[in-house]
Amino acid sequence: MRRNFIFAGIMVALFATTPAFSMVLPQDCSGVNAQSAECVSMLTMASYVEQAKAQAANSDFEAAMKTMGKAIKIAKNFPAEIYVEYVIDQAEYAESWARDYRGVKGLEQALAILQRAIPYLGQVDSVSTKSRYYNRISGLYIELANTNKDPTYSEAALETFQHIIEIIDKETDPGYWASIHYNLGVAYVTHFEHTKEVGNLILGKNALLEAQKYFDKKTMLKDWAKVVSALADNDVHAAKAFNRPDLQQKAMNSYVEIAKSLKGTPYKEELANAYHNGALLSEERGRDTENLKDLKLAYIYFGKAADIYYDQRNYFAWVRANSNQAWAQYYLAKLTDKPEDFEGAVDIVEYILENFPQHKSPVRWAEIVKQLADCKYALALNKSDTSLLGEAMQSYRVSMKIFEEEGRMKQHDEASQQATNIMMLLLSIEGGEKSEEPPKEDSGV
Question: What rounded mean pLDDT belongs to the chain?
Fold first, then answer.
């Protein structure tokens, strides 16, 4: 089963609408006061902030991040609220830079930047600043949990959302209260994906239902879609965890309703999420029942989602949607047994690798290389092509090296076993024998 990530997870913290930070000068810095040391520092800091904003507006996020670093050095001499707000700004620039150029290492850098502000939080009285900080760091925790498949990050996200709930008032800000419960619900689902502890599904559904009370479809369509999608994601997992197949169909109905409601609206990414998650369910059903129609639908809608993610510059989502489209093609080929269908899967994976440099995420890159090996292995058996077997074995070995370097020994061992299987098959062919053993199916990406 490959449903190890639901796209609602990467939308965490986007509901939060805390007021924008406005720096207040500690004294009148006009006239003669402008020459005081405090005013000179404050005005210099403000100029760095404006320079960083301009750089970010031109998509030069690396420069913006470095410029904010200069402002932050000065901010240490001013109230903690200023320092924390500027750290958040720098982390946001680092996160944007990561998405465009650095990949997961950049996300980890953004998290490290935010963690520097932890000692200052106790000195901050502003609920707005604290909420903005907790939202930003929890969003990174969720994304890193999914990218690195590490439950320590999702656990940290759950703890962070509890901090936010403790400092906000449901009566005075019901929208923010609802948004945090949405985020909390997504975090519980994410934590379940990495721990398989079913209690997270119950807690997650309760949090999402709390959020759903506030977000009305007619007046807040985008927010409504996010909550309904997250509830459907929860149902997908609950269907298997509690042996409730009816919940799977309920989830599919939700994705279809979301897609119909969002088509033709500005909410492109939410539409892509609905396409993608519906495609995952369609693919599962197609594999389980060997239904070509379901697999073809999955292939089509993975492609639709990938196109939107590309337009929205959601890089990792684009990789994931294309990878899943290749798997849909792979399972389709297993049913048709046509070489051109296997070749179609190989083509998609090669296209991903042409546009997905290793430094973006070494583990994710290695997973895609292993997927290429799986597809070539199946194609080689289909065509009785020993040269393709050699290519598949080489791809397994490349992925093994990265998995070992990154400490992913389970994935390393799986790739190693496949490489060994091919070696034994090649030796048997050379010895005049031929085995038709198919490649072991990948557990998912």
Answer: 87
76: how many CB neighbours lie within 10 A of its CB?
Answer: 11
Q: pLDDT digit string (tens) for 34-61?
A: 677 888 888 899 899 999 999 988 888 8
Give the Cα separation of 386 and 345 in Å (integer).
19
| DSSP per-residue codes, 134-154 | HHHHHHHHHHHHHHHT-HHHH
Is residue 126 exposed (0-12), middle (13-18) or buried (19+ Cβ within 10 Å)?
middle
The one-letter code for the residue type at 170 is K
Instruction: Answer yes or no: are the C-beta atoms of 122 and 151 closer than 8 Å.
Output: no
Rounded Cα gap, residues 271 and 11, in angstroms: 13
Question: Among candidates 235, 244, 331, which has minimal Cα distance to 289?
Answer: 331
Which residue is associated with the tokens 């070995």? 397
- Residue 443: CB atoms within 10 Å: 11
Looking at residue 172, its pLDDT comes to: 84
> What is the per-residue pLDDT across 276-299, written as a single tens digit (0 to 9) for each?
999 999 999 999 999 999 999 999
First to last CA, the chain: 9
User: Which residue's entry shows tokens 């020459």?
Assistant: 35
Give the C-alpha separation, 105 to 384, whole Å.
41
